[in-house]
Amino acid sequence: MKKLMLGSVLSAGLKVASAGLTFLMFMLLARVLGAEEYGLFASMFALGTIGAITALFGQHTLSIKTLSALGDGPERAADRRFALRRSFQITLVGAVLVIGAILGAGMAAPVLGFDVNPVYLIGACALVIPFALAELVSHQYRGFGSILWALAPRDVLWRAIVLLACLGAASLPFVFRDAFTAMIGISLVLMALVVVQLIAMLIRYRDQFAAQPGAQVTATMPWGVSAWMWVASLGTMGASLNLSAAALFLPPDQIGAYFAAQKTSQLLQLPIIAINIAATPVFARLHSQNDISGLCDVGRKLAMLIAGPLAIGAAILIFFAPDLLSLFDPSFAAAALALSILAGSYLLIGLGGPTRPLMLMSNGERPVVRMTLISEAVGLMLIPILVPAFGIVGAALAALVVRVLFTLQTVAWCRTKLGVDTSILSLLPGGRQTG
Q1: Cβ distance 360 to 61 under 8 Å?
Q2: Membrane-crossing residues (predicted)?
């Protein structure tokens, strides 16, 4: 538990830095690009994120589960090497397929009567490979137990470099002159950092990859594509999916305002993400040992750690919503109600606890898939009803419904199937689960 707490403190510190840099990065991008170009940038970023998560085919989640289960003994070096090589092969093939699908859809759009800007599609494609590889490598470092190398390059350095580029855009007109050049620029920076991470991994963990001559790969390990983990991981792109669907009914400036509201509300993800990063390998290890009492103990402590910061953070975002959004663009203050709704939705997710990683590390991939599909399907069906009627507030309401449905389902599953409660309910009298 001490290692979990230390990991949580480190990940929380990095996520605090990341949250501040993320907010500043997207805020300055909005100021540099202007409301309409920022809306186009938001659409490209959302589609690129969806493409990257899809291209992973669940390899990021599978990597952390596999590496945590393998431990760090030299006898499993061949397995580790094979696991990493296979994960990169599958991810790169997936990225090529996704890029082909995006460009193919763009070519077919005019035939179907849709007017799609090819620049928008190319910009989204530029983000797919760097973002997918960054996500994969980050999870692999977490599997090796290195929180610093997992988070610092993408969550801190990438954002800091883009932030500096935004500051230099005023004197260097060729830097981020429009949404497309901004997307290409941030994608190239991210790819460079991924290369640095990969080189560092090969050097840092070379002993763990040094297999003995004749060592065989364990046939029973889940080396292939985990279809259930893949579909389950798609739930992490819910915000991007929500924005991409809403963008079909909104003008660019409103898309930019909603994107600003999304990015501001996601500050509330900070505590839960920090906890998830440190707790996921612990969940995998405890479940592999069938230590239900240990899972219960971790669940209660996580609920205790997260409740206070989330409640305070939500109150701050709701109270200062217009002022925070005005930092992006003065016209974005009109999205204050949408920001308040999104903040409430993230508060509910956080109070439910890290149920998704617990389920994924406890062979609950199929239930997560079912719950994700049900929740996201309901949300997508609400978009064409709520957005034309209420604009970006309607999009925020659809996101709220998705998160409430998913959280209720996952908390109920963990309580009934595992006897583990990671929600705020575990702190109430009678809420303690014994497994």
Answers
A1: yes
A2: 38-58, 90-112, 118-136, 156-176, 182-203, 223-248, 268-286, 298-320, 332-352, 373-406
Confidence band (pLDDT; 50, 70, 90) for 380? very high
* CA atoms of 324 and 349, how far apart (whole Å): 22
Angle subtended by helix axes 392-413 and 252-265, to nearest 10: 30
- Tell me, rounded to whole angstroms, the distance of Cα 267 from its chain centroid: 13
- The whole-angstrom separation of Cα 396 and Cα 265 is 11
Summarize pLDDT for 121-170 with one digit per residue, the tens: 999 999 999 999 999 999 888 888 787 888 889 889 999 999 988 888 76
Contact (CB, 8 A) for 256 and 30: yes
Instruction: Please report the DSSP string for 107-147 in residue order.
Output: HHTGGGT----HHHHHHHHHHHHHHHHHHHHHHHHHHHT-H
Q: Which residues contact 433 (CB under 8 A, 6 or more apart)?
A: 296, 299, 415, 419, 420, 421, 426
- Residue 217 in contact with residue 82, Cβ under 8 Å? yes
- Alpha-carbon dihedral angle through residues 316, 357, 155, 80, given to the nearest 10 degrees: 170
Q: Could you give the count of Cα atoms lying within 13 Å of 375 in the half-sphere of its Cβ?
A: 27
Contact 251, 388 (CB under 8 A): no
362 three-state secondary structure? coil
